[in-house]
Amino acid sequence: MTSLHTSLAPERLSYAAHARTLLALGLPLIGSNLAQMSLHVTDTIMLGWYGVPELASVVLGSSYFFFLFILGSGFSYALMGRISAAMGAGDEVQVRRDARMGLWLSLIFACAVIPVMAVSGPVLRALGQDPALADLAQDYLRVAMWGMVPALVIAVLKAYLSALERTQVVMWVTLLGLALNVALNWVLIFGNLGAPEMGVRGAALASVLVQISTASLLMIYAVRVPALQRFHLLQRFWKPDWEAFFAVARLGLPIGLTSLFEAGLFQASALMMGWIGTVQLAAHGIALELASLTFMVHMGLSNAATVRTGRAFGARDAVRLRDGAVVALAMSALFGVATIGLFLGLPQLLIGAFLDLDNPDSAEILAFGTRLLAVAALFQLFDATQVMALGLLRGVHDTRVPMWVAGSGYWLIGMPSSYLLAFQFGYGGVGLWLGLVIGLACVGLTLIVRFWRGPWLRLT
């Protein structure tokens, strides 16, 4: 990696200017992330109204879909850093080259994993799932699998538009998709307005239609808006550009694996919490849902930091890169501190919102969930640090070493720590979450040290 060189007379922005720019980019991305998460929440609520077996099978099926999706979405995160750097360097041709090959990689990946979803039933049964639920999950996935292509196209277009600092359209289109998803679920799951009652297949079809609609709107915007037409996004789309193809692949695959390592950690934590007890698993799910909501804020700021860091990296402006990183970390830390206050100050109010307090199990879930939220408060800062460090490193095209750091920290340190604290040292579910904190702390601190010691910050 070559060092950055400062320009002859760089314009140094104030920290306040960096903060304004970061928020202008980050707030729409936070809104988009929260809307995207709400798609899952509305599916869960509406299928819960329909039936418990249907809800359980779609939880299985959507987790299966999500694991494949996050691996393929690594290419879009790679684009965010590469396109931002190309814009910083004033190379608009490279913007088109990278975006086109990002679409190629995403389409190839989607086509490769569709058969994996078509035969999901035997896979889920082999993983110990109830045969009836596994078959129902396969029914869901045999419809939902056709949404993988538009889902990954959406991820690429969101990265493309975010790197071009067009984040507001991403938020509004995602919110429109959320409203459409609720309406289509109501029609297709329950058979309203004369439609056939389709149950889990209806939920899957609704998701596919929303994904196709969202991808179409974002593509129309990307190619038709006058200010973006100069990039000629789809020009000679059929023509391979192997240099850009392999450059995006080299950055994107490690990002996808990094995300998979982290998602796998939390999936495994749910499995281990299930060994402890049903009440503990319910509390774990609620606490994790609350932590995930706050994580969406950090993720939005991290994505904005990738764009700003990439711009400075492409312009070879180490001063702006450093100052922007300081502001991004400070803003994420401030939100983390506010979240800690919320989790410690109002735990019963937050957890109680998810419960029927007349249910006899609710008091036990509330008590245990309050203890988990105290630990969640502890890992807020570490979770914020690791996601922000990943965002900054992606902006300077550093993804391979972070992948190994994440894999080691989560699976060689975090997971064994969770198991030992929970089951060997007798701390139960709280110990399991403390192990997650240890894993996140190791990854976050290692990555942030790597960023601040990197060659991209050396002035020559």
Structure in words:
The chain has helices at residues 15-50, 52-72, 74-88, 92-118, 120-126, 131-144, 148-163, 167-190, 200-224, 242-276, 278-314, 318-345, 347-352, 362-395, 400-424, 428-452. By secondary structure, it is mainly α. It has two domains: 25-240, no CATH class; 254-455, no CATH class. Helix 2 runs antiparallel to helix 10 and helix 11 runs parallel beside helix 14. The longest helix has 37 residues, at 278-314. The two termini are 14 Å apart.
Tell me the series of helices and strands, N- to C-terminal. Answer: HHHHHHHHHHHHHHHH
Instruction: Report the end-to-end length measured between terminal Cα atoms.
Output: 14 Å
Mean pLDDT over all positions: 89
Characterize the overall form. Answer: globular
Q: Oligomeric status of the shown chains?
A: single chain
Sequence stretches where pLDDT stays below 50 over 5 or more residues:
1-9
Count the E strands.
Answer: 0
Query: Number of domains in the coordinates?
Result: 2
Count of alpha and pi helical runs: 16
Spatial extent as radius of gyration: 22 Å
Helix/strand-derived category reads mainly alpha
Query: What's the story with the biggest beta sheet?
Result: none
Helix content range: over 70%
Report strand %.
Answer: under 5%
Layout of helices and strands, plus pairs?
Elements: H1 15-50, H2 52-72, H3 74-88, H4 92-118, H5 120-126, H6 131-144, H7 148-163, H8 167-190, H9 200-224, H10 242-276, H11 278-314, H12 318-345, H13 347-352, H14 362-395, H15 400-424, H16 428-452
Helix pairs in contact: 1-2, 1-8, 1-11, 1-12, 2-4, 2-6, 2-10, 3-4, 3-7, 3-10, 3-11, 4-7, 4-10, 5-6, 6-9, 7-9, 8-9, 10-11, 10-15, 10-16, 11-12, 11-14, 12-14, 14-16, 15-16
